[in-house]
Specification:
four-stranded antiparallel beta sheet; DNA-binding; homodimer; RNA-binding; 7 helices
Chain lengths: 369, 369
RNA sequence: AGACACCUGCUUAG
DNA sequence: CTAAGCAGGTGTCT
């Protein structure tokens, strides 16, 4: 079957060494967003994200993973690569429940039909060999998870966070302008977002139905648009079907009806790829337990801190977009500041022309003991 | 048998116009609780509740109904009174299965013996003419069912919710003081918060019955302490060693038999009763399995140490979460430190804003502190 | 096979 | 504090 790395057309793409994904849903059910992140060996990061106007927390969680897996599909990967997620639903579903579902006809333990079957089936098809899923706890600590959460939350609120483009900022096979900074995306369109052509999804493949539930609600609409450079089939082709609501005596429903809204998926720079198959998760002879989640994240933090130090030492002014990237905060949260503020060990001063400068803050350190 | 021992103190007791009951069981099987509620014509409410250290959801469901029926026994009732429950097991058992069981020797349709026979027999004996059982769906909506659920859940967790005393308010508040004594509807005792004296040992009446069922687990011993205005009774030295200690993570079995646990039933204001369950088997101290793959671990240790050095050299402040990641200690174990501490070759100093800074400790070889 | 209930876990929100 | 989205499981009977 598919030996993974085909003739690798991308010049010297560094391998992916870490990955994470997360979903958010504002209201649950309600408008949702997802975020994913790929960390490369050269230290660069590629971030993905998208929104859905009416969905559930779990759908977003699955969607994030799906987008990530599809992006991973044709990238070189470090053998120890694992995907960090806080969703037990995702991990258990993929690793333990899915086999049973397929065997027993997509029935839940309590008799009902398995929800989100469309996504589960696509996820199953998008598995990437050798990549394990590791669970990280919800909100405390993990920087990659936090970052994905921030992306997801931003999208779920209709905002458009800036996303890192990834290595080189462009694709070797096609010379591209590396944008990524400048331009000030914020207001309207995004830095990376220009959508060329909608294009129908090339391979429909899925849409196998799922259907069945609840006469009630009706599907919430969702659609995804991938943006990036010009390519076809972007990120996540729209999935379809199913909208929450389960059994009972008419107790819940997603939304009165319709109002399908649009969703969007953005990505730092390109992404495409389709797929093969393989297996993610634990196989049988598990030689690789998920140990060691710590170092990469800290390493990356250190990189940013040292970078900040050099920027401060050099007295360089930064645009708001650059600053947002450095401090890893949504642009939105910075844009209406007007005077000096503090970030970690630095003071950030306005330069007056819309730019900002870092200054290392000694901050009282006194004799211990 | 109903002997109302003392001079019936209820002068003009208003009739009961509504009633409900529910059971809960934390873990199933596991520690359980039950709750019941009587609504009187004058608008007042009397609430009952109790706990059992090791039981099942269905036993608690039956127990709640039993306590309710026994309380109803000698109260004036509105002719339209019905009991609201969400347990089909209770309703069907009482209304359709029980006759067949008695006729066919307490055999289940599939051959086995009927479980909880002790409770079923007592329920059968405690039927109150003219009172019907009506089914209400589990969690949504019904206020009386919700209230009973809350009482049951609270007891199942070892808490003691405040319970309305009913008409004529007895003893409104009375903190503490434990008098737990007295007669209980179910296994034997009851006590009322305010009744000072129960004396005479009331006959345990039924406790024996229980007998053999328990196919799988249910052996729960139980005892109740109740209090109530209406009866007296007394007896049974309540208490018992209570030892709480819920099985934290383990999976305990209910123990085939023996080791009777104690439960408690309260009514109205609540006294101090005991709650508990005593069981103690043998301490099965679950030794923590110290898994620790050695060889590759050192490699990443080095990475972490070097990283720490650079963070120290840069004077960077770290959040607690980041610190936890660096030193590989649970966040929990760090979060209540307030002054400097040592980790390996570094001193960790508080910066005052919730962050911490590393400082390389030169004299790491002497015993400081 | 069906029904009701009782939980456990994770996440998402207000 | 509350509630929803999701799963797996037991308690019990027919």
């Amino acid at each position: 079957m598919a030996e993974a790395p085909d003739a690798d057309p991308r010049g010297a793409m560094p391998p992916v060494v870490a990955a994470a994904c997360d979903g958010a849903c504002s209201g649950n059910p309600g408008p949702g967003g997802w975020g994913a992140l790929l960390r490369f060996a050269d230290g660069s990061v590629r971030e993905l994200g998208g929104a859905d106007g009416a969905t559930t927390n779990n759908r977003m969680e699955l969607t994030a993973a799906l987008a990530l897996l599809e992006a991973l599909q044709d990238l070189p990967r470090d053998p120890s690569l694992s995907i960090r997620t806080d969703s037990r639903y995702l991990i258990d579903g993929l690793q333990k429940w899915l086999p049973g579902w397929k065997r027993k006809g997509w029935r839940t333990a309590s008799g009902g039909t398995v929800l989100n079957r469309d996504l589960w089936e696509r996820l199953d098809r998008s598995r990437v060999a050798g990549v394990s899923l590791v669970h990280v706890r919800g909100h405390s600590g993990d920087p990659d998870n936090d970052r994905c959460d921030a992306i997801a939350v931003a999208f779920s609120r209709g905002q458009r966070p800036m996303l890192s483009p990834g290595p080189g900022g462009s694709n070797p096979s096609r010379p591209a302008r590396a944008r990524t900074t400048a331009a000030s995306p914020l207001s309207g369109e995004g830095a990376t977002a220009r959508v060329p052509a909608g294009r129908a999804a090339a391979a429909p493949a899925d849409s196998a139905a799922s259907g069945a539930n609840r006469g009630a609600g009706g599907a919430a609409g969702r659609a995804s648009v991938a943006a990036g450079r010009a390519d076809s089939g972007g990120g996540v082709p729209a999935a379809n079907a199913e909208s929450a609501a389960r059994g009972g005596s008419g107790r819940e429903r997603v939304s009165g009806e319709g109002a399908p809204r649009q969703g969007a998926a953005l990505e730092g720079v390109a992404g495409e790829g389709v797929a093969g198959e393989g297996v993610v998760g634990e196989g049988v002879a598990p030689a690789a337990p998920p140990l060691d989640p710590a170092p990469p994240a800290l390493q990356r933090l250190l990189g940013r801190l040292e970078l900040a130090d050099r920027l401060a030492a050099g007295g360089h002014g930064l645009s708001l977009a650059e600053l947002a990237q450095l401090v890893e905060m949504p642009l939105r949260s910075l844009e209406n500041r007007s005077d000096s503020w503090r970030w970690r060990d630095w003071l950030v001063h306005p330069l007056g022309d819309g730019r900002w400068r870092l200054e290392r803050d000694a901050q009282g350190l006194q004799a211990p003991e």
